Amino acid sequence: MIGFLRGTLAGKQPPQLLVDVGGVGYEVEAPMSTFYQLPETGQPVHLLTHLLVREDAHVLYGFATEAERQLFRNLIKVSGVGARIALAILSGISVESFVRCVQAQDAVALTRIPGVGRKTAERLIVEMRDRLKQGGSAMGQVLPAGGPGAPADEAFDALVALGYRPPEAQRLLKLVEDKAATTEELIRAALQAAAR
Fold first, then answer.
1. CA geometry: angle at 161 spanning 116 and 103, to 5°?
2. Given pLDDT bands bounded at 50, 70 and 90, which one contains residue 176?
């Protein structure tokens, strides 16, 4: 497995990169989120990588951050989502925004990403929610309000269990997030906000 590349950026033409590492040119595919952070051609570059071995090719994918690479690795495990769609997702939405969409069960926002239809968006929400909560260290860093088990997450789950639609539960919690610290206080404040 190739974990990272450190060398000179020899060429870039989305989604392809060419990285010269000690005289060997590595072809790397990268999402636009990584392209935005690249230096000029001829400058030193460091990329985290994921090597995907298929029957017909070995493809190296490059990422600017560990959170991007971790999300890519989780996305390609979702049935019906291959590397192409995973790159499109990373190119069309930030890791943090993707996490928020999954937590809020916002399939509509995900369908705005080219290549992601309604069924794929719903599958992403179902399959990624648990993975994001388990999260590796990199994915855990993008979970809001302290990650899994945080009062805001528990309050969100409780409001959904009470019958609120996820976007409404999210909206109510945003209204009261500064007024309460514990899960119970957040739920109480959100229910009071809903009653107004």
1. 30
2. confident
Residues 49/3, Cβ–Cβ less than 8 Å = yes
- Which range has the worst mean pLDDT, 24-38, 78-92, 127-141, 158-172? 127-141
Residue written as tokens 């069924």?
Answer: 119
Contacts of 181 (CB under 8 A, 6+ apart): 151
pTM over 0.90: no
The H or E element containing residue 171 is helix 166-176
Given a contact cutoff of 8 angstroms between Cβ atoms, the answer to whether 159 and 183 are in contact is no
State how far the Cα of 11 lies from the Cα of 16, in Å rounded to an integer: 8
Cβ atoms of 19 and 30 closer than 8 Å: no
Distance CA 146, CA 186 (A): 15
CB count, 10 Å around CB of 23? 6
Q: Which two tokens stand for residue 122?
A: 């719903």
DSSP secondary structure code for residue 12 in this structure: E
Domains of the chain: 4-63 (2.40.50.140), 66-144 (1.10.150.20), 151-195 (1.10.8)
For the chain, the distance separating the N- and C-terminal CA atoms, rounded to the nearest angstrom, is: 56
